[in-house]
């Protein structure tokens, strides 16, 4: 008798294994690191924008916008640093063409969806390049996330066409997502070059996936994230998708206008420049994400967007 493996369950198990690899004591380490960073650390405010319109094109679709604000505290430790913080963000997803009327939005095109969330996180970094991070986000998927109002406002500011089919977005669902990442080492073949591999995972009713990432940097490098730097970088990601509510609707919701099946393997590449000097930090990169929808041609479903991060420390 053959047992049929459920892809979502398999990826959930892989995600749990990735999160379990984090070198934290679940009952004390995460909380202690957060408290130490908050009590003794310096404060950083960071704004992050993902948007395909920043590439100076007038059409957008799929993952069309991501907005995040983070406040974090960083404290030095023997041989490294700890960080703790909180964040709030919003992600917007639309059909491939926002000018399509509601009646023409359906499979295999991307559903309209918005995810509004807030969360906390704790992380450790060592001078040898190893690091670990764990956190949890809680939020709302669907009309409660305010995606229609946000996108209409942005498009009026940018003088772009208004989206036509937010009336067919996925239904409301409260979501919880546990996320984590661990990098066991950093390889430094030259003083101006390093490569850091990591594993990461998310587990929840909005996103469940597990993946592997490689980050290569070249330039004036820093050993720890809060040190001065000026470098170019290339990040390559691959992830196995168990559940993606922006495509499938919330895990516990039903009656969605339309949903689509995700591709189980999704790749992403990002190339950019990072700079940190004194209290100011900036990072800009171009991201190429592969097709996320099983029944769309890869040439049609892939997408490009620009990522911009600005931060100030005091």
From TrEMBL:
InterPro entries reported in the protein's UniProt record: LpxR (IPR018707), Put_OMP_sf (IPR037107)
The organism's place on the tree of life at top rank: Bacteria
Signal peptide range in chain numbering: 1-28
Keywords: Signal
Official protein name in the record: Lipid A deacylase LpxR family protein
Naturally occurring in which organism (per UniProt): Noviherbaspirillum humi
Organism placement in taxonomy: Bacteria, Pseudomonadati, Pseudomonadota, Betaproteobacteria, Burkholderiales
């Amino acid at each position: 008798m053959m047992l049929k493996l459920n892809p979502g369950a398999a990826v959930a198990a892989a995600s749990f294994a990735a999160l379990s690899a984090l070198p934290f004591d679940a009952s004390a380490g995460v909380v202690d690191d957060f408290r130490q960073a908050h009590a003794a650390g310096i404060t950083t405010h960071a704004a992050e924008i993902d948007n395909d319109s920043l590439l100076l094109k007038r059409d957008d679709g799929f993952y069309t916008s991501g907005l995040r604000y983070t406040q974090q505290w960083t404290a030095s430790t023997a041989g490294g640093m700890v960080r703790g913080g909180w964040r709030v963000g919003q992600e917007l997803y639309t059909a491939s063409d926002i000018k399509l009327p509601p009646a023409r939005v359906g499979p295999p095109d991307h559903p309209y969806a918005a995810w509004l969330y807030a969360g906390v996180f704790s992380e450790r970094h060592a001078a040898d390049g190893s690091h670990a991070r764990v956190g949890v986000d809680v939020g709302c998927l669907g009309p409660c996330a305010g995606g229609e109002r946000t996108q209409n406002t942005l498009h009026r500011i940018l003088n772009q066409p208004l989206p036509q089919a937010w009336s067919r977005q996925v239904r409301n669902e409260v979501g919880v997502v546990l996320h984590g990442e661990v990098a066991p080492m950093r390889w430094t073949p030259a003083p101006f070059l390093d490569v850091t591999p990591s594993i990461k995972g998310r587990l929840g009713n909005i996103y469940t996936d597990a993946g592997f990432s490689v980050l290569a940097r070249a330039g004036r490098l820093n050993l720890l994230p809060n040190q001065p730097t000026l470098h170019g970088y290339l990040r390559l990601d691959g992830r196995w998708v168990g559940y993606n509510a922006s495509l499938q609707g919330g895990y516990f919701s039903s009656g969605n206008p339309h949903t689509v099946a995700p591709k189980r393997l999704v790749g992403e590449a990002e190339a950019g420049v990072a700079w940190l000097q004194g209290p100011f930090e900036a990072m800009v990169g171009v991201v190429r994400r592969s097709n996320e929808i099983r029944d769309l041609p890869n040439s049609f479903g892939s997408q490009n967007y620009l990522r911009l991060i600005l931060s100030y420390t005091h």
